[in-house]
Design brief:
Layout lengths: L1 H22 L9 H5 L2 H9 L2 H12 L2 E5 L2 E4 L2 H8 L29 H15 L1 H6 L1 H20 L6 H18 L5 H4 L6 H15 L12 H7 L3 H17 L10 H6 L12 H32 L1 H17 L8 H4 L3 H13 L7 E4 L5 E3 L2 E3 L4 E4 L1 H4 L3 H4 L15 H9 L15 H8 L1
Parallel strand pairs: 2-6
Antiparallel strand pairs: 1-2, 3-6, 4-5
Helix pairs in contact: 8-9, 9-15, 11-13, 13-15, 15-16, 15-18, 15-22
This protein binds protoporphyrin IX containing FE (HEM).
The site of protoporphyrin IX containing FE (HEM) has 24 residues, from helix 15 and helix 22.
Length: 448
């Protein structure tokens, strides 16, 4: 009996290996041997936080289509990019995104895979993210910048070392606080991680993102046992923090009397026709802004600072462009976002820095749409999970040229046609389709 069982298991395992290696629909796609057998290598690299290098190296080694797990291919290809991430794309998000929804009993528009429901969810909040809405809030962004500069100046004058990674993080959390809840989150004022909101949010993103490919996904960390042992899982603590803010606003206890994103969310129409808007729907949307907007924008700012400080000539040219503008416009107050749009070099430095180090580097997973897709001679059947990593796409030499890895703001200034072409392939904000970043305007106003 024991012999028979081990024989059956051996035969099953051999058949399983032979299928994955030779007969699977993705068998002909190149990639590391281990990835043809298991997805654990990719998941390990996600956890290891080296994916930004791994995925670029994989494409350099294996070409535009790489099998990164038995059932998953990574792509960098101009045609595929348009099919997956531009307007009118029929490609749906995969169940990897469920990892962001597990603790919430209502649809979340970041992770919703049904295109109709996603469209309705996105439409009801899109006005709050439009450029005209964000520009109405610009004075609150500026007030955060004033606090930031004032504090940094004081530390600099006292000869202290300033950790700009920390300051950009505090700054962007305060900005999203101003815009979402009508008040800064006290990060810069106290120079601490007040309420542990940054730590909780970072930990939530780390676990949810990395557990997305695993069975049970983020339930490994968002469950009653973890909550009991740890006074709340990261997601539960983060939601509870947002929930408290929503309830305080509803009960008039938060002291805010101005229009902000939360007031927009409280006026949203519920999705079901004869239902009342539930508090949890408002919590989800508010959490989206803080969760998806603060960390990403801080990373964008760090990318810009990194390249400016690494390149003294860029620093000098930028300084001159800004100084000249102040003189020619006889500007007495801080430059506004719309005025920064008249500074081509500044815009190109930001575009180039965030191209090379985009804030999100994981695979933006989609199912291949009906009819399948041909990429670089490989046929990918309909339904196959495929994805592009913004960093791999943004360093694709076929689009960006042999100098794709070089920081070259001038590439955006060569001629307007070339710059429009490059922007149409820029994946920093997830492409240009219906699932691209809704917070891009806020990110730009904060960074510029
Ligand atoms: C530099 C800053 C930012 C970058 C680089 C960035 C990048 C991205 C990317 C790549 C996606 C696509 C994700 C995917 O397909 O899996 C995305 C989606 C999204 N972003 Fe951003 N983001 C930034 C700032 C923000 C801000 C400030 C907010 C909120 C105020 C925000 C809210 C969202 C939301 C809600 C989605 C989901 C959109 C949907 O599925 O329809 N992001 N972002």
């Amino acid at each position: 009996m024991t012999v028979n069982l081990s024989l059956v298991l051996t035969l099953w395992f051999t058949g399983f290996l032979v299928y994955r290696l030779f007969f699977h629909p993705l068998a002909g796609i190149p990639g590391p041997f281990i990835c043809k057998i298991t997805g654990l290598w990719r998941t390990y690299r996600y956890f290891n936080m080296t994916w930004h290098d791994d995925i670029v190296n994989l494409h350099r080694a294996y070409g535009p289509v790489v099998r990164i797990a038995p059932n998953e291919a990574s792509i960098v290809d101009a045609g595929a990019q348009k099919k997956l991430y531009s307007h009118g794309s029929k490609a749906r998000k995969t169940s990897w995104y469920d990892t962001w929804s597990t603790s919430v009993p209502v649809p979340v528009f970041f992770s919703e895979t049904d295109t109709k429901i996603h469209g309705a969810l996105r439409r009801r909040v899109s006005a709050a993210f439009s450029m005209s809405s964000i520009l109405k809030y610009e004075k609150y962004v500026q007030s955060c910048l004033d606090v930031c500069y004032g504090k940094i100046r004081k530390h600099a004058e006292a000869g202290r070392i300033i950790d700009m990674s920390e300051w950009t993080h505090m700054l962007t959390f305060d900005i999203v606080g101003e815009l979402t809840f009508g008040q800064a989150l006290g990060q810069m004022e106290t120079e601490t991680d007040l309420d542990d909101v940054r730590k909780t949010n970072t930990s939530d993103i780390y676990w949810a993102g990395n557990l997305g490919h695993m069975w049970l996904q983020s339930r490994w960390v968002n469950n009653l046992v973890v909550e009991w042992l740890n006074a709340g899982s990261p997601a539960a603590r983060f939601s509870a923090w947002v929930f408290e803010k929503v309830i305080m606003r509803k009960e008039g206890r938060d002291g805010s009397d101005r229009e902000d994103m939360l007031s927009h969310f409280l006026k949203m129409k519920p999705l079901g026709t004869n239902k009342a808007l539930e508090d949890i729907e408002v919590v989800v949307e508010s959490a989206n802004v803080v969760g998806a907007g603060a960390d990403t924008t801080a990373i964008g700012m760090r990318s810009c600072l990194y390249f400016i400080l690494q390149n003294p000539s860029v620093y000098q040219r930028l300084q001159k462009e800004i100084d000249d503008y102040y003189v020619s416009a006889n500007l007495q107050q801080p430059i506004s976002f719309q005025q920064t749009q008249e500074l081509p070099y500044l815009k190109s430095v930001i575009a180039e820095a965030t191209r090379l180090y985009p804030s999100i580097v994981y695979q933006l997973l989609r199912h291949v749409p009906d009819g399948g897709m041909e990429v670089n001679g490989h046929f990918l059947p309909a339904g196959t999970p495929v994805g592009m990593s913004p960093i791999a796409a943004n360093r694709d030499k076929a689009i960006w040229g042999e100098d794709a890895d070089v920081f070259l703001p001038e590439r955006w200034l060569e001629d307007p046609e070339r710059s429009t072409y490059l922007e149409s392939y820029n994946m920093t904000y997830g492409g240009h389709g219906s699932r691209a970043c809704i917070g891009r305007n806020l990110a730009l106003v904060s960074t510029d």
